[in-house]
Amino acid sequence: MDIKSIRGMNDxxxxxxxxxxxxxxxIRENFEKFGFSEIKTPIVENTTLFSRNLGETSDxxxxxxxxxxxRNEESLTLRPEGTAPVVxxxxxxxxxxxxxxxxxxxxxxxxxxxxxxxxxxxxxxxYGIEIFGVAAPQMDAELIAMLVDLYEKFDLKxxxxxxxxMGCEECRPKYRETLMSLLKPSxxxxxxxxxxxxxxxxxxxxxxxxxxxxxxxxxxxxxxDFLDEGCKKHFDAVRDNLVLLKTHFxxxxxxxxxxxxxxxTVFEITTEDLGAQNAIGGGGRYDKLTQELGGAACPAIGxxxxxxxxxxxxxxxxxxxxxxxLFVVTPDERGMERAFQLAFSLRKNGVTAxxxxxxxxxxxxxxxxxxLKAKHVLILGGTEIDQNAAVLRNMSTKEQETLKLTDLEAExxxxxx
Length: 417
Ligand code: AMP
Fold this sequence. Notes:
With 417 residues, the protein is α+β, with helices and mostly antiparallel strands. 37% of the residues lie in helices and 21% in strands. It folds into 2 domains: 16-171 and 227-314, BirA Bifunctional Protein, domain 2; 323-416, Anticodon-binding domain (Rossmann fold, 3-Layer(aba) Sandwich). It has helices at residues 16-33, 47-53, 59-64, 83-92, 95-98, 137-153, 172-183, 192-200, 211-218, 229-244, 289-292, 307-314, 336-348, 362-371, 382-386, 408-416; strands spanning 37-38, 44-46, 66-69, 75-78, 102-111, 123-132, 159-165, 250-251, 263-271, 279-285, 300-306, 326-329, 353-355, 376-379, 389-394, 400-404. The strands form 3 sheets. The protein has an 8-stranded mixed beta sheet with strand order 1-5-6-11-10-9-7-8. Strands 13-12-14-15-16 form a 5-stranded mixed beta sheet, sandwiched between helices. A 3-stranded antiparallel beta sheet has the order 2-4-3. Helix 13 (336-348) links the parallel strand 12 (326-329) and strand 13 (353-355). The longest helix has 18 residues, at 16-33. The structure holds adenosine monophosphate. The site of adenosine monophosphate has 18 residues, from strand 6, strand 10, strand 11 and helix 12.
C-alpha cells in the first residue's frame, strides 16, 4: 500500500519540530505577557460562518475552502482562518458580558485549497490575536509594536510593517464608486477575476498579481485620500502612536486585505527573505463583525501570522534542541538489570536519559551517545562492575570518573540535575 500525505499538508519532523516548539513557546509567552488568554475553537465550522463573513469575492470563499457535507447533510468547512471562529465563540459564550474588553489568542491549523509552493500550503498553522472592546488607536499601535517586538525576539531582520486604512461604511462606498468608474473603461483588459471584482469589490484589484491589472491599479487613487474625518483622525493617531513606541512602518496607500470584514486600520508585516510568499502576517480592525455574527456592536482588531513562514525564517538553532543529559552504556549483560532500573528512575526524577535495549556493541552505544550529543555517558558493566563501580564520562571534556555503585543514583542526581 502506497499512501502518501495529502498535497500541501506536511508532516513536521525533528529537528524542525524543535523550532516549532520553541516558536510556540516564545509566541505564547509574549502574548500572555501582554494580557492575552488562549482560546481554542474547533477546526470545523458551519460553512456559512465563512461564506457570509469573509466576502463572496474573496479568494478563500470563491475557491479555497475545504467544504463537505456532514453525515446529516449539513455543510461544514475546515476553518480557513481564525478570526470568524473566535468572533463566533465570543458571541456564543457572551464573553463580553464577563468583561467588555477581551484579549484572546490562538494557535492552530488552518486549511486553504491553494496551489502549494514554498511558504504556501493547504494545511498551515497560524498564531493569531483578537482584541475586542477597544476602539482607541493606541490599541492598533500597541498591537503592531508588540508584533515587531515579538519578531525581534526571533532576530528577524529586514521586516517591513505596511500600514493602511480601509476607511469605514461611511467613506468607503464613495471610494468604491470612484474605483468602479475608473476601472470600467479598461475592464475588458483586466483578468477574469478582476472583471468580476470591478462590479463586486473593486478594492481587491490592488491584490491582483496579474501584470496588466497591476499596471492599471498603479494609477488608481488611494483609500487614504477618501477617508472621512473620523477615519483620518484614527489613521493619523495610529501613526503618531507607532512613532511614540519607536516602531518603524511605511504607509502603504494600496494595502487591502483579503477579507471583507476589515475597516479602518489594516497592516501587514513582510520580509525580504521569503521570496514570493513575503507576508509573515497581517491584520486589521473589524469593528462590525461581532454585530454581523449576532452580538452587540464591539470594536475589534486582530492579527494572524503564519507559523511555517516564521520557521522558514528562523531555521534550526542548536540551543532549541532538547539536551540529553545521560546515556547509560552497557558493555555487557552484567550491568543491564541495574542500568535498566537506574535509567528509568533517573528519568522519573527529572534527568533526560537514554539507554540501548537492542544489544548494540559498546562502541556503537558510544557512537549513538555521541550522535545524540549526550552530555555524559555512564558505563555500567565490564570490569568496573566487579569492583562495584561505574564510569561517568563527560563527553565534552572527555574526563572520566569512577563512581561507586552504592548511592550511584543519588550521586548522579546530584551531579546532573
Ligand atoms: P491571512 O489570513 O491570509 O491574512 O494570512 C495571514 C498569514 O498566514 C500570512 O501572512 C502567512 O504568513 C500565513 N498564511 C496564509 N496562507 C498561508 C498558506 N496557504 N500557507 C502558509 N502560510 C499561510
